[in-house]
Every structure is written in C-alpha cells, then in structure tokens.
Amino acid sequence: MDNQWIFGIDGGGTSTRLRIESLEGKMLYQAESLSMNPRSVGWNGSRKTLDDLFSGMYKSINLSADNCISGFAGVAGIDREADTGMMRSIIREAGNLGFDTLIEVKNDSIPALAGAFGELRGILLIAGTGSIAVGADSVGRIIRSGGWGHILGDEGSAYWVGLRALNAAIRFQDRRGPQTDLLGRALAYFGEKEAFSLIPAIYEDFDKAKIAAFARIVAEEQDRGDETARQIFIEAAEELALLATSIAIRLGEATIGGKIAFSGGFITNNERLWRDTEARILSTLPRHRVVVPQADATTGACILARSIANQSRLY
Predict the structure, then answer these.
(1) Distance between CA atoms of 2 and 217, rounded to whole angstroms?
(2) Contact 78, 36 (CB under 8 A)
(3) Would you state the pLDDT for residue 2?
(4) How do residues 122-179 score in pLDDT, each as one tens digit?
(5) Residue 17 φ then ψ, to 5°
(6) CA distance 224 to 220
(7) Among 208, 222, 214, which Cα is nearest to 185's?
(8) Mean pLDDT value of segment 180-209
C-alpha cells in the first residue's frame, strides 16, 4: 500500500523527537516535544508527551493509524522488561495503533548507535545531559557502559561537570579547595548574592537540566584560564574515554580496531572536550578511529523500525 508508514522515537533525557518515514525511507514528518523519560516525568508525563506528538502528526499529515507497519522507540531510563512493556502500551495508545503494528522499545542508546553507523555495529559514545557508551560487534552482541543516571553515574556528562563545578565553588567558599571564579559564576547563574543561598536554589527546586547547563559556564572559565575548571574538564575527558574503551575491551576488539562515533550536545559542541577525549581513547585503542555519526537517533530508530517491518514480511 502506498500509504504504509513506520515511525522512530528518540526519547532522550530532556526532549523527545518523533520521525515518520515511508517504507522506502522517505521522511514524511518530524517533531519535537518534552521529555518522555518516565524516571524524570513519570508515566503520566510520558503519556502526555506521546499524546501531543502523535496528535500533532495526525493533524499535520494525512496518514491512517491502520497503515502503520512498525515503530521503534529508544527511551532514556528504559531497560527492564516491565518498563519496555509499559512504554510499548503507552505508545500504542497514543498513536491509536492496533496490535498488528509491531513496536519495539529499547534504551535510547540503541537507535543512536544504529543512526551513527547505519546499522547496529561499532561504538558510540554519548555525552549530553548524561553519558553512556554502547557498542555492537559483527555477530550482533550489544554491550553498554554507563547510563546509570545522575545519582549513580553519568560521569563526564554536562550534569556531572556542572555538579563538580558547584562542588568546587562551595569548597572554595569553605577554603577547603583552591581559588576559583566558579563561585562567583555560580552565584550569578542562580541569581543569588551569597553562597549559602545556593542551598535552597538547588535543593528546593532541583533541576538536573539547569545544573547540566551550568557546564557551559564551566567551559567558559576553562577557556579563561581557571585551573579548577580545566581540571574538571580533564577528568571529564578521562571518564568519557573510559566509557568507550571499556566497550572495545569487552567486545574483544581492543587490538583489532574499529570505529567510534561521538554524539550528544555536550561533547559535539565542545571542541576541546572532543579533542581531549579522542586523544585519550586513541592512546588506549590506537587501531581505532573516531568518526562523525552518519545520522541521528530518530533516523536510527526508523532504520530499526524498517528492519522489524522487513523481518515480519519473511514470516
């Protein structure tokens, strides 16, 4: 049928993107909305975001839910089978999709990997609000490192850098750490006049994205010569490199070479962090090379959705 279509969803930590394609790969529609990460916005928040995206799509283009063949969603914070099942049901309801529409839900790193290389192969290092690395070998084995969230992990991410900078600022306030302009920058950023006011500003209205955004100011201070800010970024590069190299080692590809791509706004918009991370990776994995991703996670989700559709035709 000419109107058959598939969809891909990239549900990252701070936003959600929906992409609609024909079975032949033509992009028909794309849109962005708020986060659908149930760990951040709850299941009701996930449902609202998806309701908004699908209703907006149906209003914008003339497609029937009955003609949706398959879909793939990558969602931050989703790993357990119970969670993927719940998310699959929410997507089906939001899109008004029947049970003949094949829907797969995985962690958001999986479609990002497919988009980066056009297939599930290679190693992808993602550093945005959070951090994770994922890799796949030629026999389809998929391994991930990191992605433990802002309390247990996210080393080297924008949130991690922002939090480390705030910690350095208050250590200087107490004279437990070296002098740094990060204290003054933190007060200005949060609109406060004294250090103790940072406690209610951060704790009473905790906003992970706002702390992550402070990393841009830390980068500015690094460029201005602040040694504390520079040290934080050095450690960030080391942590990000560890994520990628651990994947290559666990896949058994540390000595045979391969490709590594970087993704995520934090590392792709920070040339110095990119270079430092790349140098550390290549010092451990000299046979590997760092490449630019071919496409984004929504395109990768559509690649995987199309693969699901094609496999279903074989049975």
Answers:
(1) 50
(2) no
(3) 61
(4) 999 999 888 999 999 888 899 999 988 888 989 999 999 999 999 999 999 999 999 9
(5) -125, 135
(6) 6
(7) 214
(8) 92
Residue 271: how many other CB atoms lie within 10 Å: 9
142-146/27-34 β-pairing: unpaired
Average pLDDT across the chain, whole number: 92
Rounded to an integer, what distance in angstroms lies between the CA atom of residue 67 and that of residue 180?
A: 59
pLDDT by residue (tens digit) across 250-289? 999 888 889 999 998 899 999 999 999 999 999 999 999 9
All CATH 3.30.420.40 domain ranges of the chain, comma separated, are 5-118+295-312, 146-291
- In this prediction the pTM is 0.85
Q: For the domain bounded by 146-291, which CATH number is listed? A: 3.30.420.40
What pLDDT score does 14 carry?
A: 75
- Name which of 135, 136, 58, 49 is nearest 97 in CA terms: 58
Q: How many CB atoms lie within 10 A of CB 311?
A: 11
- Give me the CATH topology for the region 5-118+295-312: Nucleotidyltransferase; domain 5 (3.30.420)
Token code pair at residue 214: 């402070």
Which residue do the tokens 């350095």 mark? Answer: 168
Judge contact between 37 and 61, C-beta under 8 A.
Answer: no
